Amino acid sequence: MASAYSKGVAAIFLTEEQILLAARKTREMGFKKFESISPYPIHGMEEACGIKRSWIPYVTFVAGLSGLSFALWFTWWTSAVNWPLNIGGKPFFSLPAFIPIMFELTVLFAALSSVGTLFYVCGIPKINPPIIDPDLTCHKFAIFIPTNDVGYDEKKVMDMFKALGASDIKKAEF
Q: Which residues, at least 6 apart from 85, have a Cβ–Cβ distance to it below 8 Å?
């Protein structure tokens, strides 16, 4: 079975400013498949890496509508078709009584679909992922460029990272 991880070059940076500059320069050099790794979200990183708006909110919206539709159908079917009870002369299908159920199923379907879609898109869970540097989860930042990226030249990439002030440059797998 082939490895699901890519080989490439990783550069370790020590500050947010350095990683933002490195991400911009990497994108300007024409690389498309590079990864920016940080221990926390950094404002402006999406623009620096050229990341487009996520499509996950659309999945969430559609799943929420599906949950709302299912709840509306299910409450109608149980109260008016399958088990009609005449209680105090109220109609068999009384919408105000079912609003909490519709709200809860809307939120449930939307939340579960968002999490499931996020796991799918991110490829989670990854079993035994390679570790570029143990401090990337603490206080260091990294840019990883895989060997299969457009215009990849190892010497050119290493020179670019040196010029950007990387504290460490290494061949890695990610």
A: 79, 92
Residues 57/118, Cβ–Cβ less than 8 Å: no
Q: What is the pLDDT of residues 10-61, one digit of tens each?
A: 999 999 999 999 999 999 999 999 999 999 999 999 999 999 999 999 999 9
What pLDDT, in 10s, does the model give residues 97-142?
A: 899 999 999 999 999 999 999 999 988 888 887 888 888 889 999 9
Q: Does domain 2-52+126-173 have CATH number 3.30.70?
A: yes
How far, in Å, are 72, 86, 92, 128, 174 from residue 77 at the CA level?
A: 9, 15, 10, 48, 51
Q: Are the C-beta atoms of 9 and 158 separated by less than 8 Å?
A: yes
Is residue 31 within 8 A of residue 144, CB to CB? The reply is: no
Six token digits for residue 97:
């009584």
The structure tokens listed for 137 are 């989860």
For the chain, the domains span 2-52+126-173, 56-122
Q: Is the model's pLDDT at 1 over the cut of 50?
A: no
Which of 3, 9, 58, 1 shows the shortest CA–CA distance to 33?
9
Q: What phi and psi, each to the nearest 5 degrees, are found at residue 49?
A: -90, -10
